[in-house]
Each structure stands twice: as structure tokens, then as C-alpha cells.
Design goal:
Layout lengths: L12 H5 L17 H4 L2 H14 L4 H19 L6 H17 L5 H17 L23 H9 L9 H20 L3 H5 L6 E2 L4 E5 L5 E5 L2 H13 L18 H14 L8 H14 L4 H8 L4 H7 L4 H13 L1
Antiparallel strand pairs: 1-2, 2-3
């Protein structure tokens, strides 16, 4: 785990003064002004989040960034911060307190450091410029085996006497699980899926992924039948494929809780999330002989090394695929 100490950080005068407003500032009575009186961090946060939205960051990412920045701003409001050196010291204290917490992960520490630095740099404030990002853990989520995936999807069931309303919800949930696994979608891609994105004849879906990049994914015959059955009983003209009772698109949080519920009903003790279904999709394809480059395309990865991480392929296996590609 990376440690923050005075010895590791060079507090240069340039970086401590690099900001739109020179600190410290004083009020009319000559008293030092707290940094939160000098900068309107909440307004700066709103401007930053708007920029992320313009850059097509996902809704989940924007929410995460928003939460991180809010928490840090609340923290520094109670600190005695009058200049860049005070600000840097308070940030180190904040990160140290996060590390001592047993409820946050090393990756969360990393994300807090990166987000806070990016937020300040966007506003031309470089008080944290000398801080190095802590290391990220590279542990992989456990994938489900084929039987567990089958049990998960089959856990969505209903009786003949079940009301039509509940049947619609159950059918929708079953389609969601089936698409997540058969197509390897991100949850953010799933909730934004439009009916017009689906080509039933070709069994393909056009996905607008990260960075506004389009890709084509596939779905199997069973999933096709489920989607068609779902659309036949759905009584909404919404352009979104998956909607709630009010006709609005579903939230990512609903998908996460829904999967957790059916995993419990299926007797699956592993943690099951949308990401784990995506991970299982890639792992099972590779296991059944699909070329890793094809999996890379289906997942929408720019880098083959990212696909290797998702599929838990060891480096020797990756070298075999690489060498085969080079000899062709």
C-alpha cells in the first residue's frame, strides 16, 4: 500500500502557488480567509461534472466522481486551510483516514486520489500535483460457471396464477439476465439500450460504448425468443428496451439489486453483479475456443491486455494467441 509522507512529497513553491487565486487571502478586518471562502468548490464541482457529461462519461462514473468530490469538500470545510500547504496537508490527512477505515478498498483510495487531483486540475489548481497515485489492486472478480449462470436465469420464474403485471416484471428481469450474459454488456450500456438498436434477423445489437464508440454484439437464439416474448406483453411505446412501471428507463442500481436477489434464490453463494456476468461471458467464450481478439471486439476493449484481464487468461496463453497472430 502506498504511504503519504512529507519525505515522499516535494512541496515546491511553484506548485503550492499554481492556482487562479493567490493564497492566503484576507478579509476586510485582516483575518485569514478559509479556502472555502476563497473558492466556491460546489460550483466548481457542478462545472466539472457538466464537463464529464459533455465528454460522454457514463452516468455511474459521474455519480461516483460527484460523491468523491462532495465528501472531500465536506472534509476540508472543517479543516484550517488558508494556503496551498495547508490544503496539501489536509488532503494527506483525509487519505490517511480513508486508509484506516475498514470499509473502503485500496482501489477506492486510488480513485479518491485520482478524482480529487483531476477535479482540482480542471479548475487550474495544482496543490496536489506532487502526490503520486497509490497502487491499485488487480484482483479479479470470480466468474460463474455455466451451470450457475443457467441456475441464475432459471431462478426467474412464475406460476400460471401470477398477475400479468408481475409476469411482465419477471419476463423483463429474465431478459436482462440473459442479455447481460449472452452479449457481455456493461450495465450502463444495458440501461440505455433502445429497441431500435436490436436487429432480430441478424441477432445483433448496436451498442454505444465508452468514448462514444459503436460496436456490434451478438445474442443467442434463446435470448432472441425471450426478447420477443417480453416485447409482446409490454404495454409501453418507450424507445428504451427496459423500463419501470412509470415508463422510464431502469437504473443501474435496480439491475444490481435484482441480480443479487435472483442469485440468492438460485442458491449461488458467490457475489453476483452485472460485471461478473460480463466477466463470465468472456471467460466462457475463451474456454470454448473463441479467439481472444474476437472477444476483445465484443467487449469493446481498445487494448488486448484489458481483455486478458477480464478473461483471466494467463500470460502464456496470451503469448500463444499473440504468436499465432504474428505468424499469419
Amino acid at each position: 500500500m502506498s504511504k503519504y509522507s512529507i519525505d515522499q512529497i516535494t512541496l515546491t513553491q511553484n506548485h503550492l502557488q499554481m492556482a487562479p487565486i493567490e493564497l492566503p487571502q484576507y478579509d476586510e478586518k485582516g483575518n485569514l480567509k478559509h479556502i472555502c471562502e476563497v473558492y466556491d468548490f460546489n460550483e466548481m464541482r457542478e462545472d466539472y461534472l457538466l464537463e464529464l457529461e459533455i465528454r460522454n462519461y457514463s452516468e455511474n462514473t459521474i455519480k461516483t466522481y460527484d460523491s468523491i468530490i462532495k465528501n472531500f469538500v465536506r472534509y476540508i470545510e472543517d479543516e484550517k486551510i488558508f494556503d496551498g500547504r495547508n490544503f496539501l496537508r489536509s488532503f494527506k490527512k483525509y487519505i490517511t483516514e480513508l486508509k484506516r477505515s475498514k470499509v473502503v478498498t485500496q482501489n477506492y483510495i486510488y480513485l479518491n486520489t485520482v478524482v480529487c487531483k483531476k477535479f482540482l486540475e480542471f479548475n487550474q489548481i495544482y496543490y496536489l500535483d506532487e502526490i503520486k497515485n497509490p497502487k491499485r489492486t488487480k484482483s479479479l472478480p470470480k466468474s460463474l460457471n455455466e451451470n450457475e449462470v443457467k441456475d441464475l436465469i432459471e431462478a426467474v420464474k412464475w406460476e400460471e396464477e401470477t398477475s400479468l403485471y408481475k409476469q411482465k416484471i419477471k419476463m423483463r428481469d429474465k431478459v436482462i439476465l440473459s442479455i447481460l450474459y449472452s452479449s457481455g454488456l456493461r450495465v450502463s450500456e444495458l440501461v440505455n439500450l433502445l429497441i431500435n438498436d436490436i436487429d432480430f434477423d441478424e441477432r445483433t445489437i448496436r451498442i454505444r460504448g465508452k468514448g462514444d464508440k459503436d460496436r456490434i454484439v451478438l445474442f443467442d437464439k434463446d435470448t432472441k425468443e425471450l426478447i420477443e416474448q417480453y416485447l409482446n406483453i409490454r404495454d409501453s411505446d418507450s424507445e428504451y428496451l427496459f423500463i419501470n412501471k412509470n415508463g422510464n428507463k431502469l437504473s443501474s442500481r435496480y439491475i444490481q439489486l435484482m441480480i443479487k436477489k435472483y442469485a440468492k434464490e438460485a442458491g449461488i453463494e458467490k457475489k453476483v453483479t452485472p460485471h461478473i456476468l460480463r466477466h463470465s461471458f468472456a471467460t466462457h467464450l475463451l474456454k470454448n475456443g473463441v479467439d481472444i481478439r474476437a472477444i476483445q471486439q465484443l467487449l469493446g476493449h481498445n487494448s488486448l491486455s484489458t481483455t486478458q484481464i477480464y478473461t483471466s487468461v494467463d500470460m502464456n496463453t496470451l503469448k500463444i494467441f499473440y504468436d499465432q497472430a504474428k505468424t499469419k
